[in-house]
Amino acid sequence: MKEAILVVSFGTTFEDTREKNITAVLNRVAAAHPDCPVYEAWTSSMIMRALEKRGQHVDNVPEALAKMHADGITDIKVLPTHLLYGDEYDKMRAFLDADAEKFSSITVAAPLLAGDDDLRTVLSAVAEGVETAEDEALVLMGHGTPHFCNTVYAAMDYHAKATGLKHVFVGTVEAFPDLEALMDAVRAAGYRRVVLTPLMLVAGDHANNDMASDEPDSWKTQFTEAGLPARAVIRGLGEYGKVLNLYQSHLDAIL
């Protein structure tokens, strides 16, 4: 038996946040398992095509599996850095299933937000890591998806209130809870200002543009114009030690 670990991410075109987050997960895994080869793959074809135009290549899942097969790997442990059991996770599983017969075993870890304890761990990591004043609400911007797993974001908001993080609100840029729902909730809770931070592994396009830019349609601008002055903390989830620990625990669960 020759075992290896495959870390699968959505990807990003932002090099700095890639290093701080995706590479941070890879480094954490490699340090914890020095005798086990670690491979990497991404699932976003759009992002990988954009990097190809810069002369950079990142393997997709089939390419990574082909390399692992050529290297004589027989048993694969897969750590997805995706947050949810959503479309990208499903896409990854389909690629793994298509090549499963080439290996003795392929075992896949849970995504980051797979259960109640995961939600609470990530909430506490962000709440502890981002300082807020007494009159500031901490608003976490998730991506959002039409996939049914989107309900995790509303559940996470509920968990925040249930665990005493009354100042934390969770929403999404592409689904629900949306910006309007967040504004209503922040106002109803009596907060006068807002701190925005991403609920995403990498602080890429959504974090820098949809959340934190000075463009008219950014969350920062819209909160401010609605009478809730906003500032942004652009930090990916991979920059929190508790989150790296959580990824490692998900991997450990299948080893």
UniProtKB/TrEMBL annotation:
<dbReference type="GO" id="GO:0046872">
    <property type="term" value="F:metal ion binding"/>
</dbReference>
<dbReference type="Pfam" id="PF06180">
    <property type="entry name" value="CbiK"/>
</dbReference>
<dbReference type="GO" id="GO:0016852">
    <property type="term" value="F:sirohydrochlorin cobaltochelatase activity"/>
</dbReference>
<feature type="binding site">
    <location>
        <position position="143"/>
    </location>
    <ligand>
        <name>Co(2+)</name>
    </ligand>
</feature>
<keyword id="KW-0479">Metal-binding</keyword>
<dbReference type="InterPro" id="IPR010388">
    <property type="entry name" value="Anaerobic_Co-chelatase"/>
</dbReference>
<dbReference type="GO" id="GO:0019251">
    <property type="term" value="P:anaerobic cobalamin biosynthetic process"/>
</dbReference>
<feature type="active site" description="Proton acceptor">
    <location>
        <position position="143"/>
    </location>
</feature>
<feature type="binding site">
    <location>
        <position position="174"/>
    </location>
    <ligand>
        <name>Co(2+)</name>
    </ligand>
</feature>
<feature type="binding site">
    <location>
        <position position="206"/>
    </location>
    <ligand>
        <name>Co(2+)</name>
    </ligand>
</feature>
<protein>
    <submittedName>
        <fullName>Sirohydrochlorin cobaltochelatase</fullName>
    </submittedName>
</protein>
<keyword id="KW-0170">Cobalt</keyword>
